[in-house]
From TrEMBL:
Keywords: Membrane, Transmembrane, Transmembrane helix. The lineage of its organism: Archaea, Methanobacteriati, Methanobacteriota, Stenosarchaea group, Halobacteria. It comes from the Archaea. Residues 10-137, 153-286 form the EamA domain. The keyword DNA repair does not apply. SUPFAM superfamilies: Multidrug resistance efflux transporter EmrE. The chain crosses the membrane at residues 31-52, 64-84, 90-114, 126-146, 152-170, 182-203, 215-237, 244-265, 271-289. This is DMT family transporter. PANTHER family: ACYL-MALONYL CONDENSING ENZYME-RELATED, EAMA DOMAIN-CONTAINING PROTEIN. InterPro entries: EamA_dom, EmrE-like.
Amino acid sequence: MARISPPVALALSILALSTSAILVRWSGAPSVVVAFYRVLFTLLLLSPLALVRHRAEFRSLSTRDGAVATVTGVALAIHFAAWFESLNWTSVAASVTLVQTQPVFVAVGAYLLLDERVTVRTVGGIVLAMAGAAVMSVSDLLAGTAFAGTALYGNALALLGGVMAACYVLAGRSLRQRVALLPYVSVVYGACTCTLLLVALAGGDPLTGYPAREWVLFLGMAIGPGVFGHTVVNWALAHVDSSVVSVSLLGEPVGATLLALLLLAEVPGGATVLGGAVVLAGIVVTARAQRLGT
């Protein structure tokens, strides 16, 4: 990973993350169960390498950092549970866009808690990106689609997922300055897995008895959005300001919307297309502003 440019790694992670909503939609399992197996399989894929190469880092992990990583994992669990459920109630475009509203909360939190500089151009880029996200989020209501009656509930769940994602990014930015990637994600994913398991058991959702197709989808979510998506984003947090990472992730709604068009026959309206263009413009403005430091 040390040989890979952080911007290139971020671009690849966005491509991987863009497949997440499609894989969730294809699954017929309860949303909490889908989230549980996605994170569990990601943890199982990464933990052997983490234990072999970073045994000393695990032993030296402070109690405070372990506690923060655990709380971060709980936030990630709420993020997944809320967002995956939102995909049952609103369109892919609206859900994936609203869950990425976290740059607003990340920028404020980074300024207040991490002492990161947020420039005027950065704020302008975030505002521009969020304006595009707003246009995309109301497209279902304006167009009178199949989700018109449930879109508000689904959008609210996606927004909750966005708030929790902001907590996840901010905590990761702080911890990743002193904790190696694999030990960090192992603790976070472990806490996330345990939290989702408790939620699934409390809700009476079955954990077994699914056809082979579902297990393939669970594994695909772990390899694509899990390993090449979220884990690469965690790596980037040690090399790029959290505001840049968060706003770059707004490229995910655009990619997910295009995949939904091709694979789910969800045709985006004019408002969705316009909003996606504005989101991309906001990403470019913010990334350039952070690079120039103005």
